[in-house]
Design brief:
The structure holds two protein chains of two kinds.
Chain A lengths: L1 H24 L7 H9 L12 H35 L12 H15 L2 H31 L4 H25 L4 H8 L7 H21 L1 H7 L3 H6 L4 H23 L5 H13 L3 H25 L8 H24 L1
Chain B lengths: L1 H19 L21 E5 L2 E5 L6 E3 L2 H10 L5 E4 L21 H5 L5 E4 L6 H7 L4 E3 L6 H14 L3 H20 L9 E5 L12 H8 L3 E2 L17 H7 L3 E4 L9 H6 L7 H4 L3 E3 L12 H19 L5
Parallel strand pairs in B: 3-4, 3-5, 5-6, 7-8, 7-9, 9-10
Antiparallel strand pairs in B: 1-2
Classes of the chains: A mainly alpha, B alpha/beta.
Chain lengths: 340, 319
């Protein structure tokens, strides 16, 4: 039903446009909207504006805008990865961290902070977190295959659980032994959307792009997979390979997102389910809509995190869960009423 | 993963609360006679209640870096048998791997202590040690010099070094007064940003470190977040810190988080901040800036040096 998809697409894009504009215009430093627009306009080619304080320009361009962009990218990625995992595992509770990506990333960051030479510990964090996230999921997949020959998704999920618990144990031990640097570790785990800057955007963008392209190219396969392995195979889909490819792609993007922004809860669950409840549609529409809505959702949450008690900040995870959970419950009740 | 993140949130608040802000007690006086030698048994009032010290302690275990500083300053160093892993000053203190934040009662008891000191009554420390008839004195993070001086007096009384305690306090008072007086006051107060970690946790005027900036007549940019928010340790937005354009910056995250004037200058948008442009970013050892003992004089001295440099840049009479 292309018309329904089109309407929801317009709504999602509108939501993203509104949140992104609001997040760019509003911040802890109450700059007038005209100043913000001027600061943005100076970066358009062939345009030279005057009467703009360089400090205002750099606040908008170097601090606020990259934060909005990064929140959008991370939100899009987490929602897309969440939807993918839910499809691949036919499990509504699956989130991007299901197979240990978050634990792996946190352990990688913790090890970098605790053991790397001071001179490059901070710079090493994203790389180590990325490797940790990817490594954890790879370990879970290998472990799952060694037990269940790669067929059962339940075994894969349980293997992910075991890997995550094991890595968290190491992480906790290392943190407990390095309390002098524990503040830095927590500042990482709680997310760094506010400090990453354009450098952070540049670092994650390629991974997110590759991940999104692979997943979106296989969105039809997710619909087929949801019919069950036997049916999918009879329709000509190589179930095992498709599943692994999608897990790998979702993990690549999740690893990059979590390496740059820390573990942000709930986005990967609430956004895809909201889209599913609203549109009731197939993965062909759920995946792209989740990306767009996820971007808008995380941008809005980050806006709240940095303005509600401005110039103080709230942890973004507090906002995503505090806003997302009740909204989600309302949706669930509504959809339940509609069904009965 | 929500649980995971909440643990992180809670942990940050717990750290802020325990390391920085657990002091809600008003200065309290030891009941014992305040002149001459202490009369044992001695009863003291601390943050956890009433503590009775039966005799002059000779086997003290200090689990608080600040208490360790204080004990050695008042002259009770020889009575100290063990200090925790973060009691790095003075270097002659008998450092062990004991932990004050996660105290192991059995490991503490192994030193056969007759007095244990910590900055928080974590995990029922005092009740557990009471069962072993070991008195525990809790001296939480001070929010003012008055409380810090009172803790020094308490420790002096508890260890039979009242005279040493009085001398320590009067030396701190006079040093700090002299240092503060040596820095000329600009006609308009300079703006200071104190950084606790690279995600912009800061300290307001309501904190121990914040009152030092107030002594110098500085304007603390963190105050705008509400001086008592998060017990005086709010997390600020990067764009707010940059927009408030601090003229001096003090980094208390050089050890924990590898920050320096160089890393601050490299942050996006920070190169235009006055303190960065004029090289007025001071890094001080995290522990020096987070303890509330006699060594705070050293911190006050570092700040004074920074402000004298600031004066040559901004001018004493200029905004």
């Amino acid at each position: 039903m292309p018309r329904v998809g089109g309407r929801w697409l317009a709504i999602a894009v509108g939501f993203l446009a509104v949140t992104a504009s609001a997040a760019t215009l509003v911040g802890a430093d109450s700059l007038p909207a005209t100043t913000v627009l001027k600061a943005l306009a100076t970066h358009l080619p062939l345009l030279h504006l005057h009467g703009l304080a360089p400090s205002d320009a750099s606040i908008v361009w170097q601090i606020r805008l990259p934060r909005v962009v990064l929140a959008g990218l991370v939100g899009a990625m987490l929602a897309l990865a969440g939807a993918t995992y839910q499809g691949v595992f036919a499990n509504p509770l699956a989130d991007p961290y299901l197979l240990g990506a978050a634990s792996g990333a946190e352990l990688g960051a913790t090890l970098a902070i605790a053991y790397a030479p001071a001179a490059w510990a901070v710079n090493a964090v994203p790389t180590c977190a990325f490797v940790g996230a990817g490594g954890a999921v790879a370990a879970a997949v290998l472990l799952g295959r060694s037990v269940g020959s790669g067929r059962s998704t339940t075994i894969l999920i349980l293997a992910g659980l075991a890997v995550a618990a094991f890595l968290t144990a190491i992480e906790t031990y290392v943190q407990q032994q390095h309390q002098a640097v524990i503040r830095l570790i927590y500042s990482y785990v709680l997310g760094r959307l506010g400090t990453a800057g354009w450098a952070g955007v540049r670092l994650v963008l390629p991974y997110l792009a590759v991940s999104a392209v692979i997943i979106l190219a296989h969105r039809r396969h997710l619909d087929v997979l949801s019919l069950g392995d036997v049916e999918a195979a009879s329709l000509g889909v190589n179930v095992g390979r498709t599943r692994m490819l999608l897990v790998a792609a979702a993990t690549l993007g999740t690893a990059a997102a979590v390496a740059m922004a820390g573990t942000i809860a709930f986005v990967g669950i609430v956004v895809p389910h909201t889209i599913r409840l609203l549109t009731g549609a197939s993965y062909r529409t759920i995946l792209p809509l989740s990306m767009i809505a996820g971007a808008g959702f995380l941008i809005a949450c980050d806006l709240a995190a940095r303005t509600l008690i401005a110039p103080g900040e709230l942890p973004i995870g507090v906002i995503t869960a505090f806003v997302g959970a009740p909204f989600f419950v309302v949706l669930l009740r509504r959809s339940n009423r509609m069904m009965t | 993963m929500r649980k995971h993140q909440l643990i992180g949130v809670l942990a940050v608040f717990a750290i802020a609360a325990s390391a920085c802000a657990s002091s809600s007690t008003t200065p309290q006086r030891p009941v014992a006679e305040r002149s001459g030698h202490a009369a044992y048994p001695l009863t003291l009032h601390d943050a956890a209640g009433t503590v009775t010290i039966p005799h002059r302690p000779t086997r003290i275990v200090s689990l608080s870096a600040t208490a360790t500083q204080m004990l050695f300053a008042v002259g009770a160093g020889a009575q100290v048998v063990a200090v925790d892993q973060y009691s790095t000053y003075p270097s002659s203190a008998p450092r062990t791997n004991l932990s004050g934040s996660q105290p192991n009662v059995e490991a503490i008891a192994r030193y056969r202590p007759d007095l244990v000191i910590n900055d928080a009554d974590v995990g029922n420390l005092s009740r557990s040690l009471k069962a072993l008839r070991v008195p525990v004195l809790i001296e939480p993070a001070a929010k003012s010099f008055a409380v810090s001086y009172q803790q020094i007096a308490d420790l002096g009384a508890a260890t039979d070094h009242e005279h040493g305690a009085r001398q320590t306090v009067s030396s701190m008072r006079s040093h700090i007064a002299r240092i503060v007086a040596s820095v000329p006051r600009p006609s308009r107060p300079l703006r200071v940003y104190h950084e606790l970690d690279p995600t912009f946790y800061s300290a307001t005027t309501a904190t121990f470190i914040g009152q030092i900036y107030r002594l110098f007549g500085l304007r603390n940019v963190a105050d705008k977040a509400g001086i008592t928010r998060n017990s005086g340790y709010p997390q600020l937005s990067a764009e707010y810190v940059v927009a408030s354009n601090p003229q001096v910056i003090v980094l208390a995250d050089i050890a924990c988080c590898h920050q320096s004037a160089r890393t601050v200058a490299a942050r996006p948008g920070w190169s235009r901040v006055d303190a960065v442009r004029h090289d007025l970013v001071l890094g001080v050892d995290d522990s020096l800036a987070s303890e509330w003992g006699p060594r705070i004089v050293e911190f006050v001295g570092h700040v004074a040096k920074l402000l004298r440099r600031a004066e040559t840049v901004y001018g004493a009479g200029q905004p």
